[in-house]
Amino acid sequence: MTKLSKNFIYFRRHFNELAKKHGGRMIVISGGRVFGVWRNTRPLELARLVDDARKASPKEVPFVSPVPTIRQLASPLLL
């Protein structure tokens, strides 16, 4: 059985809160918290966030995911 990372567990437990606050963006979770938010403005910014997260917590893999908007959650046809 695969052990879920604490970063993925954080994402699942705080999903609604993340959708309200960061919907439509990419998030990087590291150290069991939101490490950074990418607003789709500069592609290299996401790579930098992931690199910084790896440096801050070198023994774990950062969790990176798009966060759906509340509207997307309300209407599965929009996904």
In words, what does this structure look like?
- It is a single chain.
- This protein is α+β, with helices and mostly antiparallel strands.
- Helices cover 44% and strands 19% of the residues.
- The chain is built from four helices and three strands, in the order ααββαβα.
- The protein is flat, with a radius of gyration of 13 Å.
- It starts with 5 loop residues before the first helix and ends in a 5-residue tail after the last helix.
- The mean pLDDT is 88.
Largest sheet: 3 strands, antiparallel
Decide which structural class fits the backbone.
Answer: alpha+beta
Q: Which strand order spans the largest sheet, edge to edge or round the barrel?
A: 2-1-3
* Series of H and E elements: HHEEHEH
* Form type: flat
Global mean pLDDT: 88
Name the poorly predicted regions: none
Rg, nearest Å: 13 Å
How many distinct helices? 4
Beta percentage is 15-25%
Count of strand segments:
3
**Estimated helix fraction:** 40-55%
N/C terminus separation: 30 Å
